[in-house]
Design a protein that fits this description.
Layout: H1 14-17, H2 30-40, H3 66-79
Length: 102
Amino acid sequence: MEIGPVVSFHRSVYDVVFPFDLTSPMGWGYENVWSFRLGERGLKMGILDATPVDHSIRKPVENYDWSTADRQRTDFLDRNAHIPIDSCFTTVQAIRLEGEPG
């Protein structure tokens, strides 16, 4: 069983993100489409990643087939305008929390 991620949206963007397109039931590719659509409206999207996660408790990709999820993401992205996948691996801005080591 996979758990997460937790997402939060302001109601002003509900029409951009809901309903989820279950072409990609694992949610792979959503961030590419959402950030593209939000950018068209002059809005931004952020990822808050302030909590380290230990992925060693159970073997990754143990409870789903990676190739199926990847194919579903490809199908989803083929049907929706989106930013390139490589763009999701770029930090645009980092904001340090108060007291966080620099």
